[in-house]
Amino acid sequence: MDPVDVVILGIDPGTANTGYGVVARIGGRLVALDGGVIETCNRDSLALRLATIHARVTALVAEHRPEAVAVEDLYFGTNARSALAVGQARGVVLLAAGQAGLPCAGYTPQQVKSAVCGSGRAAKDQVQRMVQAVLSLDALPAPDHAADALAVAICHANAAPMRAALAGASETGATALTGDWS
Question: Who's near 16: CB < 8 A, 6+ residues apart?
Answer without folding.
Answer: 39, 40, 42, 49
